[in-house]
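pasting for ref
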Amino acid sequence: MNPLVAIVGPTATGKSRLALRLAQTFNGEIVSADSRQVYRYMDIGTDKPSQQELSLVPHHLIDIIDPDEAFSLAQYQQLAYRAIDDIQRRNKLALLVGGSGLYVWAVLEGWAIPRVPPDPEFRHRLEEKAAKGKAGELYQELMEIDPVSAQRIDRRNVRRLIRALEVSRYAGAPFSGLQSKKPPPFDVLIIGLTADREELYRRIDFRVERMMERGLVEEVRKLVDMGYSLELPAMSGIGYKQIGMFLRGELDLTAAIQQIKTETHRLVRRQYNWFRLEDKRIRWFDIQEDEVDLEIKAQVARFIPK
């Protein structure tokens, strides 16, 4: 089977930089598994690779849709398989890289995702309900009809709550029960990057400060000037949501920055629910240890067919 290297773990562990080094060493190309980097014009807040980094190694599934375009997990999975197949056909190493557990496992485990078309009227009704502060009722409704999905979904992720309810309603069965798995024909090595929580939070806080210095406020303001509403799902991501609140006068800038840091800390905890340290499929490496890069390169070298 064709080799595929996946690099996973929480945010701020250096997954993208490691992938870049491995791609240069092993003649590889990178397939992003980041649910926010798919959007054009949203660069700073999603911490996309720089133009210089993008020029060094081919990257796939970055900047593929506009912020106001709908994008589903099924679409991502299809595009990811297509990119991986293309890379492998050219006898290059495919590296699947990102911290979006939903995207990563949909590809690695081969989820059979229900092909349920969106119902705009149904979605709008539930979005209005959530906007009135009743998102908790949506979560409770999902808990009643599909407790498995409810336990997997962050109750604050209104977009995913609505989609799970939409699929269950359309199919007449729980969303979770419709997701069978058929692993794709890849020989997979999963590299996990981790660090102690205090170090991760320190790195996150530093990165947020850097985003502000690089012009996150200006980036969000430019998106609004381009006609992209702050109410779009794409603009609900960490960083964009808080800066949007600042631009509307709902938060001062200091409070917005602190909220970005706090929400990103919470994101780390959710990411460890997707990528568990006890998961035997993942070979974990502590980024604080000496010569971790050399150890990982040795693992990849042993994994790739001679």
